[in-house]
Amino acid sequence: MGSLNIENVKKAFGSVDVLKGIDLEVRDGEFVVFVGPSGCGKSTLLRVIAGLEDASSGNIIIDGQKVDAVPPAERGIAMVFQTYALYPHLNVRNNMSLGLKQIKTPADEITRRVKAASGMLSLEPYLERRPAELSGGQRQRVAIGRAVVREPKLFLFDEPLSNLDAALRVNTRLEIAQLHRRLSATMIYVTHDQVEAMTLADRIVVLNGGRIEQVGAPMELYNSPTNLFVAGFIGSPKMNFIDGTRLGETAKTIGVRPEHMTVDPKSGSWKGTVIHAEHLGADTNLYLDAEQAGLLTIRTFGEYRAEPGTTLYATPDPSRIFRFNDQGRTIR
Amino acid sequence: MSRATISLPRTVAAHAVLLTYTVIALFPVVVIIINSFKSRNAIFRTPLTPPTAETFDLIGYATVLNQGDFLLYFQNSFIVTVASLFFVLLFGAMAAFALAEYRFRGNTLMGLYLALGIMIPIRLGTVAILQLMVASGLVNTLTALILVYTAQGLPLAIFILSEFMKQVSDDLKNAGRIDGFSEYRIFFRLVLPLVRPAMATVAVFTMIPIWNDLWFPLILAPSEATKTITLGAQLFIGQYVTNWNAVLAALSLAILPVLVLYLIFSRQLIRGITSGAVK
């Protein structure tokens, strides 16, 4: 239970095409992350799966059953929203149980599920509180709890961590990962943050301009991106793109990840001047204005003392250079 | 606090302006109230002095209250105002929700059409309205007044409320849909409580013109059984002799209910701001 098939789904708002034909298969128990820049259609796709928007054409099949005409509440899904979307007038317990009451679940069954979910998310001390009396992280856990008690075939997360501060984001990310392992449920997660995508996903779906650019496991996307867009989107800091003609290469564009370059003060492939250095402790990001290659970002591990204005030589790892043709596709 | 707000001359000037305006605004009301407690001679001789031991007289109130029908007029006014208010808020909020929430062909056009009533006074259509009421046999009923006032109040209500409804979080409504709420339940249970301050504003703006209106009661429902308080007060204004005591007493009394309603809504205005569920 819990598989999802998306067949040639298109969605247009007026004359604007938001989704231009999406095909995707999600296996039971898989954690799939939709990632892409804002406006790429990832949230719209999630809403179409949830039934909150109708697709202009195409089919959504949940667990082998076509659900295009099924209202959201009967699709066997649960959704967690970016803004928590808790019911302001209800306490935590009732926020979690309302959906179950709506479908006439027996009272003792509701009690059992709320107890299990609140235990799992350590929400027991707050069951009688209202959302206004909770912190952001607690509210998002309640929202996750509200999804868990429904025991859905499919969990949908719409940028659930975007409203949390950095420390809480890491914690909640961990909780979602553990939740997935414990429930072994199918989860679909939308985010614009590629770090969340890399850390959580079994498979990542990279969307751009209403189309799927690439689908694959995190390391697959990192090690063999199919095109310029995926290469630039996955990985942080972003991959360096160098005009091929400047290097005398036949490829249109050459791509090197910042972490796949080494620097040396005396010799190397590309000579350049340091314009800025970011010291993060565990690693140091150097911004190098290279004579031949243009502006380069280089990630060195550990501390590296380099003042702006000093001359350095950068050398790429030859086995990890990507080459792209004039359509932006990777040359293998 | 900025320095400008604590500078003494500025504070004095600001207060002087505000106090002057308050005095101008309250002056007619105060004159009506103090004179309603005075004898007829005193009203004409010293209209601006408060009642003294000699001039104090409750004859105006006695006349008004002994004029048996007066409680009925009050009741009529109250029924008309409350019923109209109820329908304006209910239908106004529903229309506003539809305009704010659903995408459909002609949405913008429909919004503009509904807002047209703000610009065109309903009194322009009095003759047609009267013909309509005569034809449907509603003349001299409170229903006629309620229907007209509901129509009169709706444009502004829809205009204000749809702006507020647009600000209610989409996520909250969608969470309700996933939990299996009907659209009505989403509207009544999730959206309405969050736009309560706006509802109170609309209620105040709708209520006062209805309570004070003289035009439509005079034209549509002048019969003894359906007179409203403002129309009833005209009873004491004659072509040759006017019972000023009674007129002033009736007007003073007419202020009270609307004042109470206003206080109820203004409390909502302050209290109704809900927060916490949505960031």
Automatic annotation (TrEMBL), chain A:
Highest taxon above the source species: Bacteria
Keyword Kinase: no
Compartments where located: Cell inner membrane
A single MF term (Gene Ontology): ATP hydrolysis activity
Gene3D superfamilies: 2.40.50.100, Nucleic acid-binding proteins, P-loop containing nucleotide triphosphate hydrolases
Keywords: ATP-binding, Nucleotide-binding, Transport
Listed SMART domains: AAA
Protein name: ATP-binding cassette domain-containing protein
Organism: Borborobacter arsenicus
UniProtKB/TrEMBL annotation, chain B:
Keywords: Cell membrane, Membrane, Transmembrane, Transmembrane helix, Transport
Name of the protein in question: Carbohydrate ABC transporter permease
Bilayer-spanning residue ranges: 12-34, 78-100, 112-134, 146-165, 186-211, 244-265
Superkingdom to which the source organism belongs: Bacteria
Subcellular locations according to the entry: Cell membrane
Family: Belongs to the binding-protein-dependent transport system permease family.
Membrane topology: Multi-pass membrane protein
PROSITE patterns recorded: ABC_TM1 (PS50928)
